[in-house]
């Protein structure tokens, strides 16, 4: 109804006042309460073919303003529009949608019924009581320091001086000694708890300890796979800092979006540690000969659950397979071995001598060629990490890990579960230590441990005395050629020194214990080696879980319980905001947090789709830091100069004329104008050009304050300093996503806040989160608009300020066809996304309960849903639903993948909702253009 009133008021002509009055009443009475865009199109008395004539509104609410509007013989137009509609498209050579858009753009925002409908007909906001939920907490820091770890003093000094790190975090204290021992580890620890350092530090420690020193030509020793480019860059940068004291270790980055050529050149030069996204690594595996994993001793899958649930599982499996294949091929290639030796001799003769010396000193089973031997060995250490676990991770662990240790740092659980379950009467057999490489490891587990690592024969039988062999093997496997006494001290070296009688005796003392025998082993070892720091640390770590869990039990329990841990330092709240008020509430929170906050707040806003991100960031930026503002801020132009891009100014140019017209209306309406807002806006999503994406990420990281509007591509692993507010504008697709989004604040025990917007009909989503032991408090949404008073000081009330802002937003959204198209696209993408929520949350986020008319308003659109649907239909950009990127599975491509389809992996158990995967797949694209086929290439040439 409101829309109709506006349409009519816009179209009145002063000369035909009487006639039009009749028309008005006619329209008013004839229109139905359920008003549709179709009716608007047919009845709007506008002739777009004629020139605009100044007309006077006849019945335009309290203000009665003069408006510019086009008008013509109403009857003709009605007939024409009807014809147009019936003829489905073409009208006087013009496209129907063009005409409709023209009409939309020529409408003027009003302060009458139309705009004030922002506060009308909104559903009641329910008050959700808080249930008694006891969140799981994790102690982030320990009282120990890095200097207590058995790592190189240069590393400790580097950590202190260059990174300012002294105290150990819990996960670091638990994980570092275990990783240094070469064990496969699955780590679950809350967001921002220092997992990156927990694996990066021991890797570098292991690498720097190899003698003779490794060099970049030796091959890739460790691979770190992460799901997003930003995380890859971040991890790479940390590695660069960590290897400072060890210049011979070279980290490298393959993150997608960059030119293949440059990356190929980098690979040819040689790397010691490779960080990359799975798609890109896999791409190079297929197309870059110099990428070889025959020396890779360590594979790290960070954000393992994400890697598996975003369609990357095949890429991950291909990487695992490639490592195994390359290592196998290298092990049995005598020519390669000879070449390797020859190369090493040429490269560094001194180091060869050094190697000899070590061998002589050591007099161990590792002879002169021990290093080469182990480099070419088939063992691999695998480390999986995430703040959240899924069944897929458990399966992946089963496939890729051998006898893993599970580290869970949450309090109350504090599980460090070891998969090795040994018979109590085990005797350590020294010989086994020396034979460790070829030993078929026979252990009694008492559990059905799913050890499937393809090339390894591990018989799960009851046998005595082989545990040590396994330990020794573990100790050597990750960084071959460990002549490093420090490393050996916690592995073979130490075990060699262990007095077997003592162990036998001590273990036998524990006659009642058989389920925790692995623990007992370490306990005994601890007692024996108590004076030695390194073992002490390990034994500190390998404590029994109170329930006596083994790895499998522990991880199963963790997954089945499905309880999530969030930093206790984050204040989590939710706001139930009626749909129509969402956009103004968002603006208000941005102003409150980033403008009125004198300290300068930094916030991240999560939205559902990339179209939403693009549209909202530009719209809000344009409106809050609009033309008027920029003029006033001319003295402060420095920072802004770089930021504004060509298309922004283009849009502004296009809307300039109508903007000034609008200003008159706007001020006449006495709603006040926008005040200057010093605000930096950033946007980030997976389909942005790579350079822009990296630039935004870096800028936001260094910014003192600002807003980053992004998709879930920024939800994983990103460590942006000083982010003190995370706002979830769209509900997350799962509790896990909620955890990772919130985890962008409150990192390393810092204070943070997280707000989630929910619609009144989505309120029960909070109950869903409570089931996962996430506790949130409801905030008063009515107070959230307060900050808008500063934006529209002339407005007599908060509501009027919100109305003024909404008017401004709508005006901008209708200022050009490009804006309209973008707004429609954002709206449509969101509606599609909404109907694609996964099954387990759909009962709380039900698309059937959406009011699409209200939703349009939240996108600053004036169209009805029907009109928007029509615009969508005619928008070619919205027709292409499936993003065509590297993740799009083509049978052709599938056959080309190394290891496929031969490798059947079991962790693809989660069936993704088709639509939701469609919406998010592009977020995790490797950024590569599809490869041109050779025929096309030839033709081009
Ligand atoms: N020992 C330490 N003392 C103080 N700060 C630390 C320490 N270790 C790591 N940090 C800091 O903690 C922050 C979070 O670390 P990191 O990114 O590794 O967390 P994470 O557990 O990987 O988080 P996520 O699960 O979100 O990926 C970083 O800023 C890092 O510099």
Features:
eight-stranded mixed beta sheet; ATP-dependent RNA helicase; 941 residues; ATP binding; ATP-binding; globular; single chain; 10% strand; Helicase_ATP-bd; RNA binding; binds adenosine-5'-triphosphate; Rossmann fold; alpha/beta; 47% helix
Rg (CA only): 32 Å
- Can you summarize the main beta sheet? 8 strands, mixed
The whole-number mean of residue pLDDT values reads 68
Q: Assign the structural class, choosing from mainly alpha, mainly beta, alpha/beta, alpha+beta, or little secondary structure.
A: alpha/beta
Query: Count the helices. How many?
Result: 44
Using the 3D structure, state the CATH architecture of the domain at 566-627 and 673-878.
Answer: 3-Layer(aba) Sandwich
Bound ions, cofactors and other small molecules, one mention each: adenosine-5'-triphosphate
Order of strands, main sheet, comes to: 9-10-8-11-12-7-13-14
Question: Which term fits the overall shape?
Answer: globular
What is the class of the domain at 566-627 and 673-878 in the CATH system? Alpha Beta
Oligomerization category of the chains in this entry: single chain
Low-confidence stretches at least 5 residues in length (pLDDT < 50)? 1-75, 84-93, 109-116, 344-376, 421-549, 627-673, 883-891, 893-930
Helix content: 40-55%
Compute the number of strand runs: 21
What does this protein structure show overall?
- This protein is of the alpha/beta class.
- Among the domains are: 170-331 and 367-408, 3-Layer(aba) Sandwich (Rossmann fold); 566-627 and 673-878, Rossmann fold (3-Layer(aba) Sandwich).
- The chain has an eight-stranded mixed β-sheet with strand order 9-10-8-11-12-7-13-14, sandwiched between helices. It has a seven-stranded parallel β-sheet with strand order 17-18-16-19-20-15-21, sandwiched between helices. It has a two-stranded antiparallel ribbon with strand order 1-2.
- Strand 9 (251-254), helix 11 (260-269) and strand 10 form a beta-alpha-beta unit.
- Helix 9 packs across helix 10 (229-242), helix 12 crosses helix 14 and helix 24 runs antiparallel to helix 25.
- The longest helix has 23 residues, at 646-668.
- The radius of gyration is 32 Å and the shape is globular.
- The relative contact order is 0.11.
- The structure holds adenosine-5'-triphosphate.
- Adenosine-5'-triphosphate (ATP) binds next to strand 6 and helix 9.
- It catalyses: ATP + H2O = ADP + phosphate + H(+).
- Residues 589-789 form the Helicase C-terminal domain.
- This is ATP-dependent RNA helicase.
